[in-house]
Automatic annotation (TrEMBL):
Gene3D superfamilies on file: Cysteine-tRNA ligase, C-terminal anti-codon recognition domain, HUPs
Annotated gene: cysS
Keywords associated with the record: Aminoacyl-tRNA synthetase, ATP-binding, Cytoplasm, Ligase, Metal-binding, Nucleotide-binding, Protein biosynthesis, Zinc
Source organism per UniProt: Rhodovulum sulfidophilum (Rhodobacter sulfidophilus)
Descriptive protein name: Cysteine--tRNA ligase
Keyword Nucleus: no
Catalytic activity reported: tRNA(Cys) + L-cysteine + ATP = L-cysteinyl-tRNA(Cys) + AMP + diphosphate
SMART domains: DALR_2
Motif ('KMSKS' region): 279-283
Domain Cysteinyl-tRNA synthetase class Ia DALR: 349-397
One example GO MF annotation: cysteine-tRNA ligase activity
Amino acid sequence: MTDIQLYNTRTRRKERFEPLDPANLRMYVCGPTVYDRAHLGNARPVVTFDLLFRLLRHVYGADRVTYVRNFTDVDDKINAAALARKQAGDPRPLEELIRERTEETIGWYHADMDALGALRPSQEPRATEFIGQMIAMIGDLIEKGHAYAVEGHVMFRVRSYEDYGALSGRSVDDMIAGARVEVAPFKEDPMDFVLWKPSDGDLPGWDSPWGRGRPGWHIECSAMSHELLGDSFDIHGGGIDLQFPHHENEIAQSCCAHPEGGFAKVWMHNEMLQVEGKKMSKSLGNFFTVRDLLEQGVPGEVIRFVFLSTHYRKPMDWTAEKAREAEATLRKWRGLVAGIEPAPSPAPEVIDALSDDLNTAGAIAALHGLAGAGDLAGLKASAGLLGLLGGKMTERGGELTADDFSEELGKFIKLRAEAKKAKDYAKADRIRDLLSRAGFSLKDTPDGTEVSIDMLRLAQFLPSSRHGEVRVYVMQPGTEEYAETVSGVRKFLRRELSALT
Ligand SMILES: Nc1ncnc2c1ncn2[C@@H]1O[C@H](COP(=O)(O)OP(=O)(O)OP(=O)(O)O)[C@@H](O)[C@H]1O
Ligand SMILES: [Zn+2]
């Protein structure tokens, strides 16, 4: 059995990983609050823990690893986003706007993370589906003296848990000094944090022994991980920004509610994606989204490769130069392995590197070694373990060109020219607009009208879900999607043509 070493934030050293139950490995990773598109920083834990998931599946067996990553779909940021829409004049009830917002965001998240080659976790629980378990856990904490109800709130009594701060290696008093703790008159102690809070008006709320309200953020993860993974599980992950207070609070809640279990054995944290030395974050406004990059034509596989080039515990920047180098390497390797059957197993040096606390830079160096030595079957199998070179080619959009529709487009251009000549500018504009809806833009030049095609617009325009936003980047001539896209667009153009004439 391969020996896996992982750095445990809690003990602050690399440890030999020993599963609690080798037949049932369990990992929980804090997922996104679904109120907006994921920024590039949010993708870093996804790629990091996807890689760990793949490694564990390889070493222990694919059906022996359970990976849970939650969606936080009840949160004040979501409420604020929905409220903004309502204030902008949307007549629908807030509840409906909230649901629409979270559904939409989860769809975006899946599409973007799929594009990075991340496997879907085994389970993706939504907080709103586990409110009952949260209420039960909070009730239990009150009974055990670790929490108190006050003014419609339930607060966790931090001083009741002796080991509070162990994960960060700091005392409660140091943490108070360094943190922005919310002062509320009803708190027994400034460190106490919210387990439950009242909801008034049309804010989302559930009935509870403490009145109509909603859970605090931290209790969500404690309740969901307990429900799905039990009192003790192997690995808990997330970004280092969550270490305090979120993970300290999760530990306090879970260990006080279930003192018989050990909660998470290994704590793993990815470092931050930075912009000029600062964490990329929504609140600082220094972010761009995964979707922005995909739209610029950067293949998801390139984004993944750039992440993997830096060790997950080191801060990193995104640069266009890194993306260019990654793309050149991937293209070269794809050229080499085309048509080659992958070896039955990844190369030992690649497995060894990954097993050393996910030494991805070492693994990539080993891939270069395999390519250099001409071991192409080994290269293909080993790259697969890193989630690279698999499946379809992640080509830039653009294989599909306006030439594919030259017959139909020619007719539109002719009709538009005729309309202009007859001074029917409304009709000429209508033709331009309907083409632009499908992603075609027209440019008049002295030599005639040039047509260019915006792949993303085109993919979004097509109604079928097979043509989701991501697909377009993986479309190649000769594939089924390609043929479907061409015929879908052609149908639309013909229908509009016959309506015009
Ligand atoms: N710049 C970053 N680099 C790496 N990981 C990050 C970064 N920003 C957030 N994360 C991680 O992304 C995951 C999702 O976090 P969450 O949804 O709470 O982010 P957010 O609140 O939208 O982001 P922000 O911190 O920008 O407000 C968490 O695991 C978090 O640690
Ligand atoms: Zn969490």
